[in-house]
Amino acid sequence: MLSARHSVSASVALVLALAATPALAGCSGENPIGGIVEQATGGNLSLGGTEIPEGFPSTVPLTEGDVQFAIAAGEGDSRGYNITIATGAESPLDAIEDDFAAAGYESQVQASGSDGVGSVIFSSDDWNVAVIVASTDDGYTANYTVAPAGTAN
């Protein structure tokens, strides 16, 4: 029997696993595993494509840029999200940290490189957010994995 905690963890794990989907799809704009995953989750998956998924928490600050990939998995209090944003030629890492601090989040873990890449884990009473800033041929991307704070218990 699955406990509520295991179910929440499974939803978050699914969000994390699907973060790799754009690479698997070869940037073709189509998600080759979407139907399979939706069937496996009972339809509790929203492949938002290039739109922020419905219900994304307004208290989680997102950097400016073009949404490249967005998904939501789970429902109700266990709903998690993964958003990838192309941010342009300048690293958004410092601005992201400032935005989360201004929104009342605490920085839990921070690791950064010399060229503007890095990762930070933020937390609030309601949300845990892992942000990874990566360098690409076209500039930088910021990937946000957002999970309800109760999933870390």
Structural class: alpha+beta
Q: How many separate helices? A: 4
Q: Would you report the number of β strands?
A: 7
Q: In percent, how much strand structure appears in the residues?
A: 35-45%
Physical arrangement of strands within the biggest beta sheet: 1-2-3-7-6-5-4
Shape: globular
Structure characterization notes:
The protein has 153 residues and is an alpha+beta fold. It has helices at residues 4-18, 21-25, 34-40, 93-102, and strands at 45-49, 66-73, 80-88, 106-112, 118-123, 127-136, 139-148. It has a seven-stranded antiparallel β-sheet with strand order 1-2-3-7-6-5-4, with helices on both faces. Strand 5 (118-123) and strand 6 (127-136) form a beta hairpin. Mean pLDDT is 78; it is low at 1-33.
Write the topology of this structure.
Layout: H1 4-18, H2 21-25, H3 34-40, E1 45-49, E2 66-73, E3 80-88, H4 93-102, E4 106-112, E5 118-123, E6 127-136, E7 139-148
Antiparallel strand pairs: 1-2, 2-3, 3-7, 4-5, 5-6, 6-7
Condensed summary:
With 153 residues, the protein is an alpha+beta fold. It has helices at residues 4-18, 21-25, 34-40, 93-102, and strands at 45-49, 66-73, 80-88, 106-112, 118-123, 127-136, 139-148. The longest helix has 15 residues, at 4-18.
Keywords:
single chain, 153 residues, alpha+beta, 7-stranded antiparallel β-sheet, 4 helices, 7 strands, disordered N terminus
